[in-house]
């Protein structure tokens, strides 16, 4: 997200209030600077260790594929739980900047502890506790930003892009560091770097603009917090197909997030984490050109192109190598497809949900699709991907990467074909 998607991590402009009339006051430069630094550090922390974690767990600690998948699943489990924290505690009891400070300071200490642990069970538990602290901050940084803005639809994207840049910079720094001429990707140093930056961010959050709890004194319900009010949309065939298809496609997606870096390192790709930042670079590019494609393809074909990109990426990985120019080109192309993989599927999906949902349940609908994809779908995907990697690993630890990558390629391809046949929606305007 990111090599972990930004879907985990952002509210797109599709869910931002509509553009206000001309003449709104510009965002104060000091506030803009603080929000930009916040976003940069927020995703620097995640990008510094999450991409290389699979390599560290596999090569550094000797974890099995199933164990690696389970550790990556901690973020998905936390994504399921975090709406309760945000909805019940953060939005009703405490100022947002103070909650962010506490969560990032505690998160930094937990990450430092994670870096010292070598056994699977304790590593898993502490990682889960860490993500229970970190995942709520993704929504809280967005809500704090929106609170300070006079026109979020114009002002938020320019600040949010600093998060993606933070992820890119983190990957470039980790990839550039060498100890005795050796990469640090299979060590615990990236986790320690993330821990230090998390503590720095926690301190910095105390300097953020005061943002009082937005729902203080209001009633809450589990149904509203999880976005279950959007279940009424499941009465529509197209929306049901979309939800089921989105859940299923998130299962093969997890292969990339957990195992792309170990795979590239196993092939001997130099500075694998640095090269993987090209995925975020392409993400920024395709985000800029999305309106052009959206106007010409529409929702259905944008989603299908996104699914096709995932299938193609895995085929390229299955037959790519680091020994030849052609093979290396296939690997790099697979990484560069990240922009289409993410933007055309996740962002298009969020836009579709926003257009499909009536005004009064749009927020609930966005929360529901995030729960289904990033929470439940992501968790199931981490379990499946880990078991598949183990299945195609010999007793002496040799990976059959071709068979490993063809498995999610076939899965994504089947889902794409079924989705293309079953999904038929001509909604082009927002319901009011």
Describe the model.
The protein has 432 residues and is an all-alpha fold. It has a single domain, classed as Growth Hormone, Chain: A (Up-down Bundle), CATH 1.20.1250. It has helices at 29-49, 53-60, 65-90, 96-116, 120-148, 152-176, 189-205, 222-225, 237-267, 272-276, 278-319, 325-336, 338-356, 362-391, 401-422, and strands at residues 178-179, 182-183. A two-stranded antiparallel ribbon has the order 1-2. The radius of gyration is 21 Å and the shape is globular. The two termini are 32 Å apart. Mean pLDDT is 87; it is low at 1-22 and 428-432.
What fold name goes in the CATH topology slot?
Growth Hormone, Chain: A
- Structural class designation: mainly alpha
Radius of gyration from the CA trace?
21 Å
The count of DSSP E runs of length 2 or more, i.e. the number of strands, is 2
Average residue pLDDT = 87
Instruction: Please give the CATH class.
Output: Mainly Alpha
First-residue to last-residue Cα separation: 32 Å
How many domain units? Answer: 1
Beta content comes to: under 5%
Q: What is the overall silhouette?
A: globular
Order of helices and strands: HHHHHHEEHHHHHHHHH
Helix content: over 70%
Catalogue the unreliable spans. Answer: 1-22, 428-432
**Order of strands in the sheet with the most strands?**
1-2
Q: Please give the largest β-sheet.
A: 2 strands, antiparallel
CATH homologous superfamily name?
MFS general substrate transporter like domains
Q: Given the structure, what is the number of helices?
A: 15
CATH-defined architecture: Up-down Bundle
């Amino acid at each position: 997200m990111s090599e972990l998607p930004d879907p985990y991590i952002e509210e797109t402009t599709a869910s931002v209030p509509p553009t206000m009339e001309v003449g709104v006051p510009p965002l104060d430069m000091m506030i803009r600077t603080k929000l930009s630094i916040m976003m940069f550090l927020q995703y620097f922390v995640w990008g510094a260790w999450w991409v290389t974690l699979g390599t560290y767990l596999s090569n550094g600690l000797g974890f099995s594929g199933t164990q690696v998948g389970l550790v990556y699943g901690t973020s998905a489990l936390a994504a399921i739980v975090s709406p309760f924290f945000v909805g019940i505690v953060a939005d009703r009891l405490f100022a947002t900047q103070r909650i962010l400070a506490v969560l990032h300071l505690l998160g930094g200490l937990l990450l430092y502890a994670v870096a010292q642990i070598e056994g699977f069970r304790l590593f898993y538990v502490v990682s889960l506790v860490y993500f229970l602290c970190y995942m709520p901050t993704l929504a809280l940084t967005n809500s704090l930003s929106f609170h300070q803005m006079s026109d979020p639809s114009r002002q938020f994207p320019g600040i949010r892009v600093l998060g993606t840049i933070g992820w890119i910079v983190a990957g470039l720094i980790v990839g550039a560091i060498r100890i005795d001429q050796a990469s640090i990707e299979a060590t615990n140093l990236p986790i320690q770097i993330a821990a230090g930056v998390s503590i720095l961010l926690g301190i910095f959050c105390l300097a953020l603009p005061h943002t009082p709890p937005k729902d203080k004194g209001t009633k809450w319900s589990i149904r509203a917090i999880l976005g279950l009010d959007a279940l009424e949309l499941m009465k529509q065939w197209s929306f049901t197909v979309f939800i089921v298809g989105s859940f299923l496609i998130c299962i093969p997606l997890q292969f990339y997030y957990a195992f792309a870096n170990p795979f590239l390192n196993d092939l001997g790709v130099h500075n694998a984490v640095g090269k993987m930042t090209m995925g975020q670079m392409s993400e920024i590019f395709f985000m800029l050109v999305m309106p052009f494609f959206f106007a010409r393809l529409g929702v259905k074909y944008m989603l299908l192109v996104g699914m096709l990109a995932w299938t193609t990426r895995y085929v390229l990985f299955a037959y790519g190598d680091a020994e030849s120019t052609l093979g290396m080109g296939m690997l790099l192309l697979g990484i560069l497809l990240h922009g289409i993989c993410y933007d055309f599927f996740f962002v298009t999906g969020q836009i579709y949900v926003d257009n499909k949902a009536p005004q009064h349940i749009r927020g609930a609908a966005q929360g529901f699709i995030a729960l289904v994809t990033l929470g439940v779908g992501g968790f199931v995907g981490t379990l499946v991907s880990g078991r598949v990697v183990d299945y195609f690993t010999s007793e002496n630890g040799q990976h059959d990467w071709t068979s490993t990558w063809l498995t999610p390629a076939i899965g994504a391809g089947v889902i794409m074909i079924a989705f293309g046949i079953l999904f038929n929606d001509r909604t082009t305007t927002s319901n009011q």
